[in-house]
Write a structure and sequence with these properties.
mainly beta, Immunoprotect_excell_Ig-like, DUF4352, 11 strands, four-stranded antiparallel β-sheet, signal, 0% helix, Immunoglobulin-like, 131 residues, five-stranded mixed β-sheet, DUF4352 domain-containing protein
Length: 131
């Protein structure tokens, strides 16, 4: 298992350098006329990613999971937001920033952001959330 990082740090998983820039909480997400309502509340995770590999590849926000103090894992979802990083193709050396959105029960205390490349055998990168 890789060393734990904190929000604001940069970690590497497979061909990606990933920085978690912050986590916000909101009840709705998306453009004005297409807003989605959370079942509980949305955790909106700000991300910066850089392709450090040798070829264009897709970064998929579904590689991100949030974990709470009890060890429950929450998956990100496809949303209608303009900043969503769902299947974003990025060429080598290029960067992108955006968001991953996770619907969690109200008042869930998130303790970790876990990002893993499901197509490789590399260790996940873990960001510890200090609230």
């Amino acid at each position: 298992m890789a060393d734990a990082l904190t929000v604001g740090d940069t970690g590497t998983v497979d061909d990606w350098k990933v920085t978690v820039t912050g986590i916000d909480t909101t009840d709705t997400y998306g453009p004005e006329y297409l807003q989605e309502e959370a079942q509980g509340e949305f955790k909106v995770v700000g991300l910066e990613v850089e392709n450090v590999g040798d070829e264009a590849t897709f970064f998929d926000a579904s590689a991100l999971k949030l974990e709470d103090a009890e060890g429950k894992k929450y998956s990100s979802q496809t949303t209608l937001g303009e900043d969503d990083l769902f299947l974003e193709q990025i060429n080598p050396g290029n960067q992108a920033s955006g968001e991953a959105v996770v619907d969690v029960p109200k008042d869930t205390e998130i303790t970790q952001v876990v990002i893993e490349d499901v197509w490789s055998f590399s260790d996940p990168v873990i960001f510890v959330v200090e609230e």
